[in-house]
Every structure is written in C-alpha cells, then in structure tokens.
Amino acid sequence: MRKIFVITFLIQLLAFPQSTSFDFHSPQNIKLFADHLFCESDYLRAIEEYALIDGQFVNDTIDFKIMLSYSNLGLFKLSNEVFKRINNGSIIYPDSYLLSMKNELVIKSTPLEYSILSSFNLSQQKSFNRLVSVSTLYGEKPVVTKNDFLSVFSAEDHDIISHLYDYKFDPPYKSPTLAGIFSAIIPGSGKMYVGEWGDGITGLLVTGLFAFLAYDNFKADHTARAWLFTGVGAFFYAGNIYGSIASAQIFNAKIDFEFSNGLKVFLENKNYFLPEYDFCN
Amino acid sequence: MTSVIKIFLVVVFFVFSGTILIAQNSFEEQFNLAKKLYDQENYFDAVTEFKRLLYFSDKGVYNFESNFLIGLSYKNGNKFSDALQYFTLSDLSSTTSDEAFESRLEIIKINILRRTTERAFVLLDSLQNTAKFSNRIDEINYWRGWAYIFSDDWDKASATFSKIQNENQLVVFCDSIKSDFYNPQLAKYLSILPGAGQFYTGEYVSGFISIGWNVLWGYLTINAFIEDRVLDGVLIGSLLWWRFYSGNIQNAEKFALEKNLEITNSALRYLQNHFNGKKP
User: Fold this and answer.
1) Looking at the complex, does the CB of residue B48 fall below 8 Å from at least one CB of chain A?
2) What CA–CA distance (Å, rounded) separates B86 from A149?
3) What pTM, to 2 d.p., does this model score?
4) Is residue A180 in a domain?
C-alpha cells in the first residue's frame, strides 16, 4: 500500500512541473504578450494589451511603445496624447520628443517650432535638425539659403532634397492667363505652351479646318453651310482658349501634388529622419 | 503506516491531481475562449486570444487549429495578406493530410478572392499532382471552376464543373452567363453599317446618334464632290466623316466589352448573395 502511494506521488511530482496552472492574464504575462504583438507589428492589439496593465509597471518604454504603435497605425494625435504622459527626465524622453515632432509634422504639415533638447545625443541632434529643416518646405518662403538648407542632410539625399526645394520655392508653374492669350492669337498654342503638344496641334488643325471650310463655303455662296462651319469653328476656337486655361491650372495643380506627394514619400522612406528603435532583438 | 500518514498522502495525491487537471484545462480553456469568440464572429478578439494561446503554449497541441482559425478570422475581416500568413502557418503545423489540404485550400480561396488566379491555378495543380490528395479531385475541380469564374473564363469554368458529379447547378449557371455575353468582334463588324453595332449591344440612343453624324458628314462629303469642290470633299471626308465612322466602330466594340463586364459583375453579385453552395 505504502509503495503504491509513494509511486503515485512521484509520478504526480514529475508531471507537476510540466503542467503547472498558467495565468494568461497576469500583468507580467500580459506585458510579455504585448511586447510580442508589438514586435509582430500587430500594433492595435499591442496597444490594447498595454492598456490592460496601465499603471501597473513604472516604465516609460511602454508608453513610448504605445506612442510608436499609434504613430505606425497613422493615429498621430493619439500618439502625441501619450507623449504628454512621458516624464521629461526619462531616458526615453528625447526619442519620444522626436517622435512627437514627426507626428506634429504629419498632422499639421507646417514648419515645426520646437526647441532643441540639451539631452539629445549626436544622432538625435541630427534627426532634430533634419526634421526642423525639412518642415520648412511646408512654409511659404525659404528660411535659409539653399546651400545652408542642404548642408543639414546627408550627401546621398542632396539630389532629391534639392529637387524638392526647387519645386517648392521656384515651381515651374505655367500662367493660365498667358495660355489663354496664346490660344486666342494662334489656336492650340496655349496647349503647346503647357506642354500638351498633341492637343495643341489637333486644336490648331481642327480650328483651321473649320475656318477654311467656312471661308470656302462663303466664297462659293453656300451661305447656310458656311455659317454651320463658322459656328462649329467658333465653338472649337472658344473651347480651345478655355481648354488652354484649364490645362495650365491642371498643370500647376499637378506640380503642387507632385511636390507634396514626393515630399511625403521621401519622408516616409526616410522614416522622418528618426533614429532606428530596436525593442525586439 | 499510521492512519494520519495515510490521510496525508491521500490529501496530497488529490491536491496534485487537481492541480494537473487545472493546468491541463488552462490552455484548453484559453482555446475554448478563443473558439467561442470566433463562433460569436468577434474576430478581432478571437485573433488576440488565439495569438495569446500560441505565444504561451510551447507544446504545439493547438498550433494547427489556432493558426487556421486566426487565418479564417482575418479572412472574414478581409485582411487577406494576414490570412495567407496564418494559413501558411497552419499548413506547416498540420499533422494530418486533411489538415494540410484544408489549409492549402484556404490559401487557394484567398488567391481566388484577390483575383490572383494564376497563383490559385499553380496551387491547384500542385494539389492535383500530390498523390495523397488523389481522392479529393472533385474538391480540387470545384475550386478550379471558381478560379475560372474569377478569371472571367466561363467556358472553362463550365467545363471544369461538369467534371464533378452532382454539380449541375454551377454548370447551368456558367453556361447561361456565357450565352448572355456580347461578341465584341461581331459588334465591331456590324458597325460597318453605322449604328448597327450599337443596336446589337442595346445602346439605341448611341446608335441613332452615330447614324446621324455619319449621314451628315457623308452627305456633306458626297455633295462637295458632286459640286466639284474636291478640297472640301477630301477635308470633310478624311477629317470629319472618317473620324465619326471609325469612332462608331470603336464605340460599338467598347460597348460590347462594357456590357460583358456588367454581365460578369452581376453574375458574381448573384453568386455572392444568392448561391447557397460553397463559396471562396
């Protein structure tokens, strides 16, 4: 009897460490799981899990991860709300500060008015200067000369940054008034001025054709037909002037779009000059 | 042995047994919780709880089912890329050929839904060429038929469904869609007579407008030649009449293609909302 009890007891004892009761929802396990979700880029779930242990750990890194998660989800305002919770004496504060600058830039698309932190290291200083400089491209006028502007960025980015700078402060706009006047003098020339050569030549030929047909029919005393061609020709002539003005406006809107889209894509590729954060390895 | 020791040992025995029972249940309970959320169509929370189970469970007991159900949850939320990732994981953690087959089938269905049907065909070929799935050829053909539907190839869809026993409903449906289609080439050639192609596709207003323009410019061209105004005739004929005549031909072909697209879309809508069989 005693042997049976002892053997049974030992079996249970061996099995016990392999199958202890597991608390999925202990604060420590929730944090572990939240960190795992964060590293899997499942940011929304990570935020939810971090919220479950809110206040149970004194840890600014968690707040920074929540900030990053919101920012990566495109919820920039919420990300900056979390920034307000981060202690300015914390070691993570300079990085949070930079991230809040990025969020601000995305939300407002205006030049950043932030002061430099004394606690920035060299890399953070670079990020700060680049973010502030690039944000001036959202302003109306250049703040510094082009050379001073470019000097902040690395050599590999000079070409694209220089292009964006020119596009912003010296855009190759076309004048809608001039396009209209050109087309009024020579049909289609306004379109050619905007760069739409095919449309311009077509406009010139069609208006010219109807003008000729009208002239030829008047000459041959086919008055009704001549007026028909005159009407159609006048319609094409007026349409061509209107079309040239519209083309110039579309051209300018395209320049603005290419600038804002180009700047956005460039900044996203560069991750807004923020330092690399590695919480997962 | 005194009775006190005996009682002590009995108590210890039951305490440990109970602990083990609870421990076994805590992972099972987590799985059941996640499954319940999935069954309630609360897919977001279901994914969270399945992921929690997968993260903490190191024995792999729930790997297939958890990954598979995460995949289905993502699929139900239209997150096809995430769903693909988890169906691939469920395939890797499958322990039976049925589990592997189901996972791969879901990957194929996602490719059908995303209209990456070329990839779906490659995966279907791979399933068909795997000996252990030779008894599931009807299912493979069924989803191949669906892949053809989403490739807008109703002929092949009908032919593929007809290989399956008792799948007459989809064969009839595909055949009926096929017969509804307009022939773009016919529309084009009918338009040699201006407007006829538009009438064939049911675009009567456009057909009459086309006739009107062609009659007007044709009359003016011919009239100019009759009155010996050759230059007028050449200019009107080449720049205006020809432009409207060729436009009428292109227009008829375009209408046929647009109508065919409408037919395809309404067929897919019908399948989505009214077809009761298995759908991707």
Assistant:
1) yes
2) 47
3) 0.76
4) yes
